[in-house]
């Protein structure tokens, strides 16, 4: 099995489960939308602005990192702007070879201009629908509605997700600072979603550690873990190379709970030192249900191609390994089983077979 080139990784069909809409805007779009509403930016041209975003995200300062979202959210406060951002998101993912994506955002952060939560979701869907239609069926994109864990609107957002689940919304999520804001604060929302047979993922184990993962799974019954990188803290590698899993890590692996891992983002937030030292290497070797994701494409200056090729360079992964990540993600998608199977059998497997046969 030979190491794939970057062009081959770009051509390979990819599946994305963890991507934030407000973390993936085009710099030029931000410049134009900011000019329309008179919002002041830290740089006036797209190239300088793009550089400011990535440098701020790399600064090691959480305050400066969070400031980047102040600017993207500020220009997403009216229907046409939100629809444009959503459309361009799908266009960019399709151009990167993504065939299925779940894109998340917090509707409650986009109502300062007077829009209702329902209107925000409708605007995003308008943009997604337009771009999917223009792609000629090359990509399928669904929404994940996020509630902010430091706020108190999770039940309202959960009900919104259920109301829209047959109209483009695949599931629910909570995001925001983990420390001091455990997922159990939103237990009523998760219990409601379970009663409604709805899907949800929870940001957990990105920075706070094992208690966050444990609560997300055992108290809140999360279908997937957003990041989940700190599960590595429950795994011991002995001097002789043998590996011992703690009770929680063993449970996560046994239950095939998907881990939505975002290498570049995890490096920026200090959850990992580098691609080569990212826990994804050991977790993949141990056959956890690992998936590869972008998190915030603008802030990390990244794409699915960049994330996957970074892993190829770090771990010498083959096309067969990338196919494994991709099928993991498609198996874990919040999409009906027959639709997941169709994308695996009709898109993912043939796409990789075509690339593998060229070697």
Assigned CATH class:
Alpha Beta
Q: From N to C, what is the helix and strand string? A: HEHHHHEHEHEHEHEEEHEHHEHHHH
Rg on CA atoms, Å: 19 Å
Low-confidence stretches: none
Enumerate the strands of the largest sheet in spatial order, edge to edge or round the barrel. 1-2-3-4-5-6-9-10
Give the beta-strand count: 10
Global outline: globular
Category from helices, strands and their pairing: alpha/beta
CATH architecture: Alpha-Beta Barrel
Oligomerization state: single chain
Strand content: 5-15%
Structure in words:
The mean pLDDT is about 95. The protein has one domain (about 5-25, about 75-355): Alpha-Beta Barrel (TIM Barrel). A hairpin with a 5-residue loop joins strand 7 and strand 8. The protein is of the alpha/beta class. The relative contact order is 0.14. The protein has helices at about 5-10, 25-35, 45-55, 60-75, 80-95, 115-135, 155-165, 185-195, 210-220, 245-255, 265-270, 280-285, 295-300, 305-315, 320-330, 335-355, and strands at about 15-20, 100-105, 140-150, 170-175, 200-205, 225, 235, 245, 260, 290.
Which features characterize this protein?
globular; two-stranded antiparallel ribbon; metal-binding; 359 residues; zinc ion binding; TIM Barrel; eight-stranded parallel beta sheet; 2'-deoxyadenosine deaminase activity; alpha/beta; 10 strands; A_deaminase; 49% helix; nucleotide metabolism; 16 helices
């Amino acid at each position: 099995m030979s190491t794939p080139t970057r062009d081959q990784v770009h051509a390979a069909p990819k599946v994305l489960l963890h991507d934030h809409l407000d973390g993936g805007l085009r710099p030029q779009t931000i410049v134009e939308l900011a000019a329309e509403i008179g919002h002041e930016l830290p740089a006036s041209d797209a190239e300088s602005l793009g550089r400011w975003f990535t440098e701020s995200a790399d600064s090691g300062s959480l305050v400066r990192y969070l400031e980047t979202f102040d600017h993207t959210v500020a220009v997403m406060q009216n229907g046409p702007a939100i629809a444009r951002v959503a459309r361009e998101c799908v266009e960019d993912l399709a151009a990167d070879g993504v065939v299925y994506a779940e894109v998340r955002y917090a509707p409650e952060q986009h109502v300062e201009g007077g829009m209702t939560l329902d209107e925000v979701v409708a605007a995003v869907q308008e943009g997604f629908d337009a771009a999917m239609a223009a792609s000629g069926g090359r990509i399928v994109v669904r929404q994940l509605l996020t509630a902010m864990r430091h706020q108190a609107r999770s039940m309202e957002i959960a009900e919104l997700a259920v109301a829209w689940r047959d109209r483009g919304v695949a599931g629910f999520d909570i995001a925001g600072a983990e420390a001091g804001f455990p997922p159990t604060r939103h237990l009523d929302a998760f219990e409601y979603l379970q009663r409604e047979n709805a899907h949800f993922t929870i940001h957990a184990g990105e920075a706070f550690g094992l208690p966050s993962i444990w609560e997300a799974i055992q108290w809140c019954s999360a279908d997937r873990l957003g990041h989940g990188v700190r599960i590595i803290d429950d795994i011991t590698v002995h001097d002789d190379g043998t590996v011992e899993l703690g009770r929680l890590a063993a449970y996560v692996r046994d239950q095939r709970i998907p881990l939505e891992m975002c290498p570049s983002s995890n490096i920026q937030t200090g959850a990992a030192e580098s691609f080569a030292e990212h826990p994804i290497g050991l977790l993949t070797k141990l056959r956890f249900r690992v998936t590869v994701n972008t998190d915030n494409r603008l802030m990390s200056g990244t794409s699915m191609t960049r994330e996957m090729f970074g892993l190829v360079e770090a771990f010498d992964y083959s096309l067969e390994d990338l196919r494994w990540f991709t099928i993991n993600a498609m198996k874990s998608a919040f999409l009906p089983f027959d639709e997941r199977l169709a994308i695996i059998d009709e898109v993912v497997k043939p796409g990789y077979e075509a690339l593998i046969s060229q070697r």
